[in-house]
Amino acid sequence: LPEGERVAAEVAHLFTLLERARWAVAASFTGPAALPDQIWATCRFPRGYMDFSTTDQVPADEIELLHLGDLPPSAPEWRHRARVATYPNLKALTLFNMRLGRHDLGIELFRLGQLQCLDLRENGLERVPIEVMACGPLRFLDLSSNPIFEPPDLAAWPGLAYLGLRETRVPEATLAALRRQWPGVLIDGAD
Fold first, then answer.
1. Count of other CB atoms within 10 angstroms of residue 106
2. Dist. CA 169–CA 165, nearest whole Å
3. What is the DSSP letter of 106?
4. Most-buried pick from 5, 29, 180, 190 (CB within 10 A)?
5. Residues 100, 125: contact at Cβ < 8 Å?
6. What is residue 88's predicted lDDT score, i.e. its pLDDT?
7. Per-residue confidence at 126, pLDDT binned at 50, 70, 90?
8. Rounded Cα distance, 138 and 164, in Å
9. pLDDT band for position 1 (50/70/90)?
């Protein structure tokens, strides 16, 4: 079966390239500012879906990045958002421009022990959702472009490295005090 051996060798080569791409993406990911406006998945076999995946499409433990931007609470898919908590290896979750406003997230973030990056930009949030405060492993949190007046208590996230507060209503004096109190956290907001 020389043809079969050639195909097997080609598949092995493509899989090696895929593994290198996964490594490169993971190594270059440093925070929300580094994310392009594209969907990246670091699953074993990356695939893009326009809806929440099901176990017949991909095992839940292979989903590492989920982009749900521009999915308003009025969208039919919104009622399935609780399913996000069933992805145990989820590392990055993008929920920007979903017009959440005063809606609860409806996602048990505390169940996501691997979640490191949460993007909540442009949601009309006046406060940080309670679900976010229970998400201890966060390293990157972007709350930019929300009408938030008061920053969250950073003690909730001992490993936090980045907090995005651009275009919020948090006073400059509060941002300056936060920077003094938490020098190890890059607090990105008005200077």
1. 16
2. 9
3. -
4. 29
5. yes
6. 92
7. very high
8. 13
9. very low
Per residue in 30-89, pLDDT (tens digit) is 444 444 433 444 444 444 444 555 555 677 887 888 877 777 777 777 777 888 899 899
d(CA 113, CA 87): 10
Burial of 109 (0-12, 13-18, 19+ CB in 10 A): buried
117-152 CB burial, b ≥16 within 10 A, e <16: bbbbbbbebeebbebbbebebbbbbbbbbbebeebb
Average pLDDT over residues 16-27: 57
Taking the C-alpha atoms of 74, 88, 53 and 128 in order, what is their torsion angle to the nearest 10 degrees?
Answer: 20
Contact residues for 146 (Cβ-Cβ < 8 A; gap 6+): 120, 121, 122, 123, 124, 125, 126, 167, 168
DSSP code for 126: S
Tokens of 74: 């009025």
